[in-house]
Design brief:
Strand order of the largest sheet: 4-1-5
Number of domains: 2
Distance between the termini: 24 Å
CATH topology of the largest domain: D-Maltodextrin-Binding Protein, domain 2
Largest sheet: 3 strands, parallel
CATH architecture of the largest domain: 3-Layer(aba) Sandwich
Helix content: 25-40%
């Protein structure tokens, strides 16, 4: 695979947020008396939040174009709804804050379904299945399993599934980062003992950085389900997005997009 850039177009993201607020699109989604599906169809856009710096899920290519697995999945969903996808980039925790406030219609950013998240959001049917890898430097022979993380320092996006897993094994601290490159650099430099990440994201990173002195020492047994979180109470919208995902799967498009970005099909549970 080609080298992938993780630079986030901060200025453009701010402009998009400002435009959507002033035009009454995503900014008014949470205040209208109309249900979300009706709002989306009337405005003609599906406002999708993502980080834009987590290859190969959402990232900027060599021309600074926003691309990735979730980008194309979201575009496919928007197409099925008869509208265009409008992307807004931001930091991980800000994505959910924006969803809560109604600035975004949905998030497409490799979001895994968890019991805690289900208490606050509704989730679509899964469109991806991944496992979590435990990654350390190549010369680290002390950490061989998740249980070995007790008292160690890991690095991940704060409030992510990976931070939650790491803390469940008793880590001493989790260093917050914004990009996968920052994550791996902290492990390579020795500032962090390990990181947890999607197995497919780690494999992609190693394809791009084949000389990186890193290794995978463990992996979760069961696959996590990747889905689209939406605000509770939007049954019509949830049903429409579910149908869109199912149509994309039946047409083989989910599989094609997955193989394009991951080199394997993660769209179906193995």
């Amino acid at each position: 695979m080609k080298m992938k850039k993780t630079t986030k177009a901060v200025v453009s993201a701010v402009l998009v947020v400002a435009m959507t607020a002033s035009c009454g699109s995503a900014g008014s989604a949470g205040k209208s008396d109309k249900d979300l599906l009706t709002q989306v169809k009337e405005r003609g856009t599906l406002v999708v939040a993502m980080e834009g710096q987590w290859a190969p899920w959402t990232y900027h290519d060599e021309t600074d174009k926003l691309v990735g697995f979730d980008v194309e999945v979201a575009e496919g969903i928007a197409e099925k709804l008869g509208v265009k996808a409008e992307f807004v980039e931001g930091e991980w925790d800000g994505l959910f804050a924006g969803l809560d406030s109604g600035r975004y219609d949905m998030i497409a950013n490799g979001v895994e379904i968890t019991d805690e998240r289900k208490e606050k959001y509704d989730f679509t049917i899964p469109y991806g299945y991944i496992k979590t890898s435990l990654i350390v430097s190549a010369d680290n022979n002390e950490i061989k399993s998740f249980e070995d993380l007790k008292g160690k320092i890991t690095t991940n996006s704060l409030a992510s599934t990976y931070e939650t897993i790491a803390r469940s094994y008793g880590v001493a601290d989790v260093l917050g980062v914004d990009t996968i490159d920052e994550t791996m650099n902290l492990v390579l430099s020795g500032r962090a003992d390990a990181t947890l990440n999607a197995n497919v994201s780690f494999y992609d990173y190693m394809n791009v950085h084949p000389d990186a002195a890193l290794k995978e020492v463990a992996q979760t047994r069961d696959a996590s389900m990747v889905s689209v979180p939406v605000r509770k109470g939007e049954e019509a919208f949830l049903e429409a997005v579910n149908k869109a995902i199912e149509d994309l799967r039946n047409e083989g498009r989910l599989s094609e997009i997955s193989i394009k970005y991951f080199g394997s099909d993660i769209s179906n549970e193995k």
